[in-house]
Amino acid sequence: MKPNILKLTVAILFTVSAFVVMGKVSAQKTVSLSPVTASSLGIAVPAQTPSAASQEKTVEQTRKNIKVLTGMPDSQLIPVMNFFATSMGRRCDFCHVNPWESDEKPEKQTAREMIKMVLDVNKTTFKGNTTVSCYTCHRGRNQPQGVPILPLPKPSPPPPGGPGAAAPPAGQPQASPSPRPAVPSADDILNKYIAAIGGQAAIDRLKTRTAKGTVVQANGNSFQFELSQTAPDKFYLLVTTPQGPFERGFNGQAGWEKTARGVREVIGGELVNFKAGNSLFALINFRGQYARTPRVRRDKIDDRDVYVLDGTTTDGKRMRLYFDASTGLLVRRVTATPTMIGVIPEQVDFDDYREVDGVKFPFIARASGIEVGNPVSTRTFTEIKVNAPVDDTKFKMPPPAAKPTSP
């Protein structure tokens, strides 16, 4: 259980660390948490491209006693389990006992029947789209909500000039509404963003980034992390936990993870996620991440006017980027990952931008996910350096621990 907790703790740091000017992080919870609960500390697992998905093993190939989720990439299992828990407002032990593959609790069989129902409804009624999910009916309750909750909310007043509005007096011209300014294009918004964080020339000079910081969970747990990145995609991350150090890295060819249990290589679809989430420029080159030009619309975050880029990424996710209409800085990133049982959302809000050697970085990032016990985690950078020398051996996969010899 503990290695899974640590693994998904670090996943958040990865998604964040990728960006030269932003990030998000979460850390592990108490050691009593199940691997399912701990998993959503990592941000939603990106949907795989066909080639990546074909390389990754499915859950029935890697886990025991899988009955209805067959064919799903293994990297999506824990986020999907968290999606179930969030939808029901419960924890893992509502359906599971230890070992997790056991069918001891009848609630687990009920869950399988409900999953089959959802899959069938989407297949037969919605042409295979994941329109309906567990959350559609349960909304965080054990029992589905099928009756309106009273009292109903008060209806909104009709807009001026709506049905029943009095006509202007005869002979008096009707005032025309002020034309709303046209929204800028996606290219205009991205160009303003690049300029806001320091300009393309400053970005082009970025070769390395090192950082230190703290992750604080909703329950108050706090953990230290260190990050090293070298262009274009090498990275090393160290998270200090009560169970010991947790490390992950990529040397440009091989990805790896090291825990108290030893070293393992990261391959297939999981490696794709590694690289996509941790490249030094992953969250700068947005044009290359969208499959086509995203739509643009206006919105508000609190009292702040923002422009939203909304589109599908090359790896099949939906991504919405929220840029401050005044400063041009990125203030929120929302992604939605499609799975066979529903769409898994994740959100990161960025704050406290500071200039470091000509480039602005957000020193605070708040990650919101679907993990019931820890819905929000805050990552704060205490130190960021760019273009400092980085020891290339950091990225190399450590040798496996030697097995003790028998006497």
Describe the global form: globular
CATH architecture of the largest domain: Clam
Order of helices and strands: HHHHHHHHHEEEEEEHHEEEEEEE
Strand content: 25-35%
Q: Which structural class do you get from the secondary structure elements?
A: alpha+beta
Residue-averaged pLDDT: 81
What is the CATH level 1 assignment of the largest domain? Mainly Beta
Strand order of the largest sheet: 6-5-4-3-2-1-13-12-11-10-9-8-7
Spatial separation of the terminal alpha carbons = 30 Å
Largest sheet properties: 13 strands, antiparallel
- Low-pLDDT runs of 5+ residues are 1-54
- Binned, the helix content reads 10-25%
Count the beta strands. Answer: 13
CATH topology value of the largest domain: outer membrane lipoprotein receptor (LolB), chain A
CATH superfamily caption of the largest domain: Lipoprotein localisation LolA/LolB/LppX
Compute the number of helices. Answer: 11
- The radius of gyration is 24 Å
Number of domains: 2
Q: How are the secondary structure elements laid out?
A:
Layout: H1 2-17, H2 35-39, H3 50-55, H4 59-62, H5 77-88, H6 106-125, H7 134-138, H8 186-196, H9 200-204, E1 208-217, E2 222-230, E3 234-241, E4 244-250, E5 255-259, E6 262-266, H10 268-278, H11 286-289, E7 295-301, E8 304-312, E9 318-324, E10 330-339, E11 342-356, E12 359-368, E13 376-386
Antiparallel strand pairs: 1-2, 1-13, 2-3, 3-4, 4-5, 5-6, 7-8, 8-9, 9-10, 10-11, 11-12, 12-13
Helix pairs in contact: 1-10
